[in-house]
Please model this.
Amino acid sequence: MIKKKISSDKMAALVVEAIEDRKGENIKVLDLRKLDHAVTDFFVICDAQSSTQVNAIFESIDEKIKKKLGEDPYAVEGTQEGLWILMDYVNVVVHIFKPETRNFYRLEALWADAKSVNI
Model:
């Protein structure tokens, strides 16, 4: 069976929906497609107030993307600690942070050249 290519825009939009379903906060979508050194098309970044919420958002995203697009993440990091979970879907990379961890890493500042978009 030939797999249909999924647009990164559509995947990013579904990720945002899944985050909103679990009351994730401070959602930011960074469009990296016009940057020469970009590792992906989009970063989707959000806050969760507890480790429990971090994991709930992770599960919501995983479930929604599997159900709607039939995709599994290429890689997942941080599920044990619950401070920051990274989900790598190749063209969309999701960062689910507790606020203090997000402030420490400051991804938006590191990728300040990226365009922030509303999805």
Remarks:
- The helical segments are 8-21, 51-69, 99-105, 107-110.
